[in-house]
Amino acid sequence: MRSSLRFISVAAIAAMLAAVPGSAQKTTGPVERYEMDVATASGFAAMAAGGRGVGNMMGMMFGGGPEGKVAHTLELRLGSTQAPTAPPVKADHFFLPQAKLGKSVPLLGPEPGKPREREDGNEMPKDFERPKGRLLLFWGCGAKAGPGQPVIIDFAKLAAGQMPPNLYTTTVPRIREVMTTNSKSYADWPNSKSSKQPSSGSSLLGTHRIAGNVGPEINFTLAQDYMPGLNASTTMQGDGSVMIRWNQLVPATGYVAWAFGGMDRGGGNGDMVWWTSSNAREFGGGLWDWLPPSTVAGLVAKKVVMPPAQTSCAIPAEVKKASGEMMFGNLNAFGPEANFSYPPKPAGNTVWNIDWTAKVRFRSHTSLLIGADFGGMGGSGASTKPAEPAKKKKCKGPLGIPLPDGAC
To answer: Which stretch is the leader sequence (predicted)?
Structure first.
């Protein structure tokens, strides 16, 4: 183990290269790439993610608001260009005590003979059934729906098992830099051996060490911690629209909201309604996930993502009317990113042999029960990915439409 390590951020690397006109320094590697996705969930989902019982959930509904009710979740992925020194692929992420995860958590490779799920975020569940009825798509903040809305998809006109065309965005891909498909060796956490997420009051500040059998040891120090929790509420307006309001998060780089509802006319032939806060028809991919600050800044400029200073958005009256009494929604706050690599860039044109890189991504999200009133909470709630084993079922909404991770 290296006792004294120096780190350099990816941004600093780019700045140094740009500062040397005509620089043609060659690089090799990295041998290992590490990705750490850090999420904060607030409200109802925080109770589920924290493993709390039904009694505590009901107590929150009928007495306490969502303020301060947060849960933290992590996703860890390790990819290497090397084969394991002794199969199978395995590694450990060692934490400081304040992380409240014990001394370490184990990262494991794919189980032999069991294929991994697709990693583009738009995969269909194996048990997908042909839905019935129609799907009505709306988008944009405002009291009234914009021109050309809703776009209507009639499921009866689709082939069995076929996904509605152009339902998910291609403009905002789900960004995964470490995957089974681009790694000779791969391991992740949570997994079948370990899946318990951090307890309340945990912190990621300080040193982190990842040691495994597929490459050099990774060491970095985090100066950024979990994002604060979102506290969102919904209020019916006199014009029939629904106003969503939330607290501004200083670390946030932008926000996106969506809502899902419908009116069942019997026999499962009801109209389902899907709305997004984007000014364009963007419903999937990275909008439910983690995105780099530079990507978010570009999406804010295109009005696909709401700017970090925005703290309200109106769901159009047409959306609420078509959805009926109840809608389920989600608000996602994209956050900062921390990047590390080793060793430091050498001077001159000496070949830079990069041993490893590490990326830590942050976000905060909450869910909305629009049309519900739990003890005066104003429809506030939260949604996150609860502590689950790696092999989990995908969320499916009404009509069998896949919902993003954490919606169920």
So the answer is: 1-26
Q: Is the backbone of residue 323 left (phi > 0), alpha (psi -120 to 50) or beta? A: alpha
DSSP string, 71-109: EEEEEEEEEESS--SSSS-EEEEE--GGG-S-SEEEEEP
Q: Where are the domains of the chain?
A: 10-21+34-400
Side-chain-side CA neighbours of residue 192 (13 Å): 8
Structure tokens at 204: 């990621």
The conformation of residue 126, written as its DSSP 8-state character, comes to: T
pLDDT tens-place string over residues 364-380:
999 888 875 443 343 44
Q: Would you list the DSSP string of 153-181?
A: EEGGGSPTTPPPTT-S-SSS----SS-GG
3-state percent helix, strand, coil for the chain, nearest multiple of 5: 15, 30, 55
Stated as kind and residue range, the H or E segment containing 10 is helix 10-18
Residues 66-103 have pLDDT tens digits of: 445 789 999 999 999 999 999 999 999 999 999 999 99
